[in-house]
Design a protein that fits this description.
Elements: H1 8-93, H2 95-98, E1 100-103, H3 109-125, E2 131-137, H4 142-157, E3 162-171, H5 173-178, E4 183-186, E5 191-194, H6 205-229, H7 234-241, E6 246-249, H8 250-255, E7 261-262, H9 281-288
Parallel strand pairs: 1-2, 2-3, 3-4, 3-5, 4-7
Antiparallel strand pairs: 5-6
């Protein structure tokens, strides 16, 4: 017999092993499929968790962005409101709103133009409303000053209550403008100057005489204005202001009727501060004890 012929006894174990292998193969495949299925299920669960986390994170981010946007809008609204409040306060405190004109200048044709324009604007916009004119003037042109004076008188005649306040000085034509108010106030340290009309004259004798006569007529007008508002007569004013500068402090101006009252000041304005005790006084007193 050939060596390739198997012994029946040897073939039996081989066939048994082959049979066992054939039985194990389906079992291994099933397990592999189960494991793969479980792995896929776990992976799917993980993906779902990650997606949920991502969705939650995105939602939180979107909510945060919306919150920041709302805060920015709120802050912008607050800034707009604050600006409107400042604008309203500025408008409320403005000269136009309070009808207060400040004339801190010499009296000239140029300086009274803006005053007449502004007063005319208020006259048309606020008929009959009270107007305050604050002056601090060294005087100047008589004719220019009389133009402003007469305009203020016209406003008084149309129902505007005019208050003229002097801070610093109301000199020469400034003193005349002070008389234009229904109410005339002066600062406690203000000065009022009254003097005759001054001016130079050149040319022929007749030309100089005409200019002197014109200056005298202007001075007569000014004396009449001053006498009308004060306790003095024109003759008394002429005597006191003859060939000199007649300066009055606030108290004198009020006493003679060139002003009505001093600008109200705090009650403590003239009070002296209490003297401070020496720093080492307490120590000395303790040592004496």
């Amino acid at each position: 017999m050939s060596n390739d012929t198997l012994n029946p006894k040897d073939a039996a174990p081989a066939q048994a092993a082959a049979a066992d292998n054939n039985k194990a193969t389906p079992k291994t495949t099933t397990q592999t499929l189960d494991e793969e299925l479980k792995r896929l299920q776990i992976q799917e669960a993980r993906l779902r968790v990650e997606k949920a986390r991502a969705d939650k994170t995105n939602a939180a981010q979107e909510a945060g962005i919306k919150l920041e946007l709302s805060r920015a809008q709120l802050r912008s609204a607050q800034l707009d409101l604050e600006k409107k409040e400042r604008d309203a306060a500025r408008e409320k405190a403005s000269a136009d709103e309070n009808l207060t004109y400040t004339f801190y200048d010499g009296v000239t044709d140029e300086s009274i133009k803006p005053a007449l324009q502004k007063l005319g604007d208020w006259k048309r916009r606020f008929p009959g409303k009270a107007i305050t004119v604050i002056i601090n003037s060294p005087g100047g042109s008589v004719l220019a000053g009389l133009a402003l004076y007469d305009y203020l008188q016209m406003l008084r005649g149309e129902g505007h209550h005019i208050t003229v306040v002097c801070f610093g000085m109301a000199a020469s034509m400034g003193g005349i403008l002070l008389q234009a108010g229904d109410r005339r106030l002066v600062g406690a340290n203000s000065k009022v100057l009254i003097h005759a009309v001054s001016g130079g004259a050149i040319g022929t004798v007749h030309a100089m005489e005409d200019r002197v006569a014109f200056s005298r007529s202007l001075w007569e007008n000014l004396k009449k204005i001053l006498a009308t508002r004060s306790v003095l007569s024109e003759a008394q004013i002429e005597e006191r202001a003859h060939r000199k500068d007649w300066w009055l402090d606030a108290a004198e101006a009020i006493a003679l009727g060139f002003a009505d009252e001093v600008v109200p000041a705090p009650a403590f304005a003239g009070a002296k501060p209490k003297a401070l005790a020496p720093a080492n006084s307490k120590r000395r007193s303790r040592r004496r004890r």
